[in-house]
Structure formats: structure tokens, C-alpha cells
Amino acid sequence: MHRTSEQSESQGSPHPYWITVQTARTVLIVVHTMTAWNRLSDILPVFDSDRRIQLIFTFPDVSKVTGDVEEQLRTSGAQTIPWERALTDNFDLAISVHHSGDLHRISAPLAVLSHGVGYSKIARESRIENRESRIENRESRIENVYGLGREWLVRDGRVPDAVVLAHVADRQRLARTAPEALPHTVIAGDPCFDRMQASRHLRPAYRVALGAAGRTVVTVSSTWGPQSLLGRHPDLIDDLLSELPLDDYLVTAILHPNVWFAHGPWQIRTWLADALRSGLRLIPPISGWQQAVLAADLMIGDHGAVTTYAAAHEVPTMLASFPRDEVATGSAADLLGELAPRLDPGLPLPDQIGRAITTYDRTRMRAVRALATSHPGACLDTLRATFYRLLCLPEPGRPAPEFPYPAEALAPHDDPVQACRVTCEWHEDPEDGPTARLRRWPADVTPRRNRGHRATESCLVVHAAHPRRDLNGNADAVVVPVRPGIDTDEVLRQQLRDRPGCGIAVAEVDPGRLRLLRRDGLLVEAVIPGSAHGPMVPAVIAAAVHTGPEKSRVGDRPMTLLIGDRRISVDLKEIDTGSH
Q1: Is residue 531 predicted with pLDDT exceeding 60?
Q2: What is the C-alpha separation between 41 and 525, in angstroms, rounded?
Q3: How far apart are CA 461 and CA 464, in angstroms?
Q4: What is the mean pLDDT of the chain?
Q5: Quick one: pLDDT at residue 551?
Q6: Most confident of 171-180, 271-280, 501-510
Q7: Which of 261, 307, 312, 393 could bond 369 through an S-S bridge, CB–CB 3.0 to 4.6 Å?
Q8: Which helix (H) or strand (E) holds 294?
Q9: At 576, is the pLDDT very low, low, confident or very high (cuts 50, 70, 90)?
Q10: DSSP code at position 404
Q11: What is the CA radius of gyration of the chain?
Q12: Partners of 419 in the beta sheet?
């Protein structure tokens, strides 16, 4: 229902008597999927603090994978109506970031937007036709880009009142596929790009939220489908964890909501259980992926939007999968496919990762950024002007707020690391005395031959509560929890009796104070001045005492351990077992 701004100011809107705030306009927000919900959170601040407008949400339930959108809407406190009612009631504006379903039947001016980096994915039917036609020249192929074809934009002769595009190149493609929509196009830029740009100053806080202090953050991103990174290389996350030392690297994973909700969140966490026990930070499907991208030192991805956003924000990017026939020619994702180096899972991963970071060409990759948005920093202003024009309302007298992505919302799934493979390289330092360079790899994932810890001798250290019996039963050193009222030394002795192949047991009796019992009966107290953080610090001390030269184990001088970028001094003192 169209009104002029003068009519709205003079007449207002009729409401039932139980409605307190007498709003002038009602906007229908169509939420197809959890991906849509994520994108709408970037857009809806255009209505911030405007008490003239009531937002009503609806869920059409027409997508193959939706997630629990209705539960999310309830949890957020949104006012909702059934889709059937959305098609019969009158509204002043409808907004959707998907094109599926009978949007043309909504009784309101309709604005449609993309839920990714522009319009970059070719519709499935068009991909099949291209494969069958065997056309080699991409420019000659049929490209029915999702969201830009006539089937998406022209329904029963109706075209959306605003077809919002991120880049002028999208308009050029639209001219070939649905010229009827050209008069309705709005080049607005990208709201997610702008919000990420406004959040860059929070990168240190995001890294703290991930627990990435002193480590290189390698982020893995997978879109959905069999040609995605996860579809083609389901073991890549495990391979990365098994080859990258724990103290030097932190691995995070971002999976498309369709992956989460097609299989189920429980199933995803179950499939990645070994990875989670190995230190993986798994980003939930609802929020946090933008923060994880900005925290990354390297992105390993595919043709999905998250990978392109990373490249557009100058994060060094590698591609582990990139099906060209699924990507729209001339899109930002298409250009990324031309410029980004490929990751070969069959070759050692640390070398490839190191090269990708050190040889990253920021100037060259800025071309991807230029194709992601035509109006960086201006999207919310353009969207608000467009929406209020369709609402026939004057805009509020101040700019729409642009909220940085909060660090508190970055809450990855992760489990404590309770099993490590530790290597020790000892030398005698003239000043520090016995010194060891230690490296740790998670033991829950197994590297390929001659990779990770399998390239050298290592010590297996396992927490006594670790659930995997194969690791627990073969531990060289065991970490024992301390419980009040129980004799710690007796617990250490019992652990060694129960584990004939184990050489040493360790318990942290107080913060920074450890008790270690060697199989030959030597009982040692280790004191770590200051703080020592990281996965299983007692395990590192146990491995050092277990594997080091005899003179390093107990002496007048502390032993020095080099772990990642940290230097830890450990004082050792032999305990007279005769008094215990």
C-alpha cells in the first residue's frame, strides 16, 4: 500500500485498541534460511530507533535446507506471522534476501537483495546444461545466475520494486538476463563488506576470543555441496591439525549453514570430534564467521562467499576447491579463482601455508575487493534511502548506525586438548643451561607418513580422562587430575602401576607447581615462575623430564623450555620419597 509522506504524517495508521505505539508503516521481513537471517542482521539497522515503523517477520519454508528459522525468530523476540498470512495481509514494504517462493504475491512494494558477495553462483540447472553442452568458452555458456535470471525476477509480469545490487557489473549482467528489471535496480554496495570494514579495529579482540595469542590463525571455509571444500576434501581439517604444531598455529573452521542444517549440528560436531579434541575452533552457524575471517592470518577456502569476503578484506587466501562451472563469470568470486593460489592436500601443508602468507600480493588481490562492492562504506545509507522512498516516509535525521561485529559473539565450539605428541630438541645454553625446543601436535588426529610428529621421534602425553582408549593405553606420560583430600603421590604411583608402558606421571598440585613421578621412583617437584599457558602445560614439562638428558632433569639451575614464541623457566627439585 503506497502513501505519500504527507499522508502518513497527517493520517497515521489504524491499529487495534490494544496496540500502544501507533506506527505509520509496517515492513514485512521474509526470512528463508539461517543464511538470510545472518544477512538481515547487517541490513535492518536502517530502521534503528524509528518508532514510525513496525517490523513483522515471516518464514516461507520453501528452501531445501532452512535450519530452525522459526526457533531463531522466537529466540530473537521478533514479531512473526505465518507465511499464509503474509500472502493475504497488506504491508507497506517487504524485504527479502532470497528469491525463492511466491514473493510476487506479497501485497507490498518488494525489495530483493543478495545474501552473499553479490550474485556469484550459477543455478544448478544451468550448470548441468553447461556440462552437457560441453561449451569450452565460458563467455558463450548459459549463465543463469541465481537471483539475476528472469525466473527469479519476473513473476506473473511483476518485477521487484527495488533490485538491490552490490556492484555495477551485476547490472551489466542483469541487462542480458532480465532487462525488464533494469529500471528498478539500485547499486547499493555490500552491507556485510561495510560492516566487516568497520570491525577491523577489533581484530586483536577477535584473536583473544579464539585463544590465538602468539599463533598463526589458519581458517578453513567451506560452502555447501559436493564440489565444496568439505565435499571434496573431508579430511583436510584433520590434516591441517595433524601437521601444524599446536603452539605455532590455531585452526578455525567456518561451514556454510546449509552444511550444518542439512546434516544437523549434532552430526557435524560428531564428525569433527577428533578435530575438536585437537584444538579446532569450530564457528557456529548463527554468528561469528565475520569475526573469525578478520582474525585470520590465512584463509583456505572455495567458491563460497566467506572465502571471497576474506580475500576482499586482504586476508591471504588459498583455494582447496574451486568448481569454475558453479561460479558466475565476471563476479568477485570468479576473479578470486583466477588470482588465488591452490592448496594441494597431497603435499606437505606447512610449506604451502608459509609460502601463501609470505608471498601474498596485496596490490594484486585488491582487484577482488574492487569487484565486491561499487560503493564501499555507503551501503546502509543507500539502502535506507531506497526503503524509505518505497515507504513514502522521510528518512530519520541521522545516519543509520553501523555496528561492529562484537567480539563477545565469537564463541566457537572447542574442546580442551588432552592428548599431544611432543618432540624435544635439547642443547646446552651458556646462559640458560639445559634448554629444549619443544613442539606439540594433537594426538587425536594422525598425520600422513613423514608429516607432523611422524617426521621425528615424539613422546605421547595423554590426560588420564581422555576418552580414547588407544591413546590412553599407549601414553609415554600421563597427566593426572588433582582432587581435594586424595594423596596425589599415591595417585601418580597408581597410574604408573596401571600403565606398564608409561614412563612418567604428572599432576598440577597448585597453579605453576607440578608433581612428577618417574617409573624408576624419582619424585620431582617442578615450579614454573610466572604464567605458562597453552594446551596441557603439565604435559610439556613431563615430556621434557621424560626425554631430556640426565643433567637437565634435576639440578641447581632451572631448565629452559622454548614453546612457540614463549620461553619458560622451570625449577626442578628432587623430593625425598623416604618422608612420603
Answers
A1: no
A2: 54
A3: 10
A4: 89
A5: 46
A6: 271-280
A7: 312
A8: helix 289-295
A9: confident
A10: P
A11: 29
A12: 462
Going by C-alpha positions, the residue among 387, 368, 366 that lies closest to residue 120 is: 368
Among 255, 250, 261, 256, smallest CA distance to 71 is for: 261
pLDDT the model gives residue 134? 43
Distance (Å, whole) CA 17 – CA 192: 39
Task: Write out pLDDT tens, residues 317-365.
Answer: 999 999 999 999 999 999 999 999 999 999 999 999 999 999 999 999 9
Q: 327 φ, ψ to 5°? A: -115, 130
Alpha-carbon gap, residue 113 to 128, rounded angstroms: 25
Q: What is the DSSP letter of 122?
A: B
> What pLDDT was estimated at residue 511?
83
Percent of the chain with pLDDT over 70: 91
Residue 153 makes CB contacts below 8 A (sequence gap 6+) with 99, 112, 147, 159, 160, 163, 174, 178, 180, 181
Spatial neighbors of 435 by CB under 8 A, at least 6 apart, are 426, 427, 428, 429, 559, 560, 561, 562
For 61, other C-beta atoms within 10 Å of its C-beta total 12
- Nearest one of 73, 85, 75, 93 to 31, comparing CA atoms: 73
Cell numbers for 470: 588407544
CA dist 307 and 318 (Å) reads 9
Distance of CA 471 to the CA centre of its chain: 29
> Residue-wise over 504-525: b if at least 16 C-beta within 10 A, else e?
bbbbbeeeeebbbbbeeeebbe
pTM of the model: 0.91
Q: Encode burial over 293-309: b for 16+ CB neighbours within 10 A, e otherwise.
A: bbbbbbbbbbbbbbbbb
**What are phi and psi for residue 251, nearest 5 degrees?**
-105, 130
**Four-residue CA torsion sign, 230, 231, 236, 241:** positive
Q: What angle do the packed helices 349-358 and 236-243 form, to 10 degrees?
A: 90
Q: Rounded distance, CA 560 to CA 538, Å?
A: 14
110 versus 141: which is more confidently predicted?
A: 110
Low-confidence winner among 288-292, 380-384, 434-438 (lowest mean pLDDT) = 434-438
Residue 478 CB contacts under 8 Å (≥ 6 apart), including other chains = 461, 462, 463, 464, 472, 495, 499, 502, 504, 505, 506
Which of 446, 385, 514, 485 lies closest to 111, judged by CA? 385
Burial classification of residue 156, based on how many CB atoms lie within 10 Å of its CB (0-12 exposed, 13-18 middle, 19 or more buried): exposed
pLDDT for residue 10? 40
